[in-house]
Design goal:
binds S-adenosyl-L-homocysteine; Rossmann fold; 9 strands; 7-stranded mixed sheet; about 220 residues
């Protein structure tokens, strides 16, 4: 993490490991992406704490250990094309960009799409594209995907996303009511159907319909 002192980096990695993020590729990707660049203003000094923080448009950047556990559960391979629903700050997508060949991330708030697109360009991350759209419908023009990650909670896995998963493909997403503790699940598409694993309790903002009414 450029600009960050080695001791803070060590602490950040230690807290990830102590919460179960043990995959060496995931830890290396998280070491390379400076979370401080994705948290702005007042909360920037808490960027390396294992806590979710507020970002623009009333949204949140997820807790680093949850980002790590979700990325680990997704089992991303170097040649994969990955779809993320819920760009937010762009932090999760930036980590995925270090692990996959191509990353598409969709977001319903125009301002977040613009800001993260600018950040990806400034960081020279050329294999990740942020797009404005309602992610409940996936991204049909780029489907099917090897991996799909949803970083906002729906009551059930959205049908269009399941349909855009390749055979052998994996989707990781929180399911449950938006105002309660949700369950992170992993869905694997097999030759004959879908397998479901329950992973851990989580709390995400809701997956909402339509585009946001943006202030800018
Ligand atoms: N992955 C983000 C965290 C995102 S918070 C990060 O690393 O920072 C969840 C995001 O999902 C919010 O920005 C919210 O606006 C977005 N979102 C909610 N419903 C959506 C939908 N239907 N389509 C696209 N984005 C959605």
């Amino acid at each position: 993490m450029s600009g960050l002192d080695p001791e803070k980096t060590m602490q950040f990695l230690f807290s990830l490991r102590s919460r179960g993020v043990t995959d060496a590729r995931v830890l290396a990707a998280m070491e390379q992406v400076d979370r401080g660049l994705f948290v702005k203003g007042l909360f920037a000094e808490r960027a390396y704490d294992d806590t979710p923080l507020p970002i623009a448009c009333g949204q949140t950047i997820s807790q680093p250990s949850v980002v790590g556990l979700m990325t680990q559960a997704l089992k991303v391979r170097p040649r994969d094309t990955v779809l993320e629903i819920g760009t937010g700050s762009g932090y999760q997508a930036a980590i995925l960009s270090k692990l996959a060949r191509r990353v598409y991330t969709v977001e319903r708030h125009k301002r977040l799409v613009r800001e993260t697109g600018d950040l990806f360009r400034a960081l020279g991350m050329t294999n990740v594209t942020a797009m404005l759209s309602d992610g409940s419908f996936g991204l049909p023009e780029q489907a099917p995907f090897d991996r799909i990650i949803v970083t906002a909670a729906a009551e059930d896995p959205p049908g269009p996303l399941l349909a855009q998963l390749k055979i052998g493909g994996i989707m990781v997403l929180p399911v449950g009511q938006s105002d309660a503790v949700q369950t992170l699940i992993r869905v694997t598409r097999t030759e004959d159907g879908l397998d479901y694993d329950e992973l851990l309790p989580v709390r995400f903002v809701p997956l909402l319909e339509g585009l946001g009414k943006d202030e800018a």
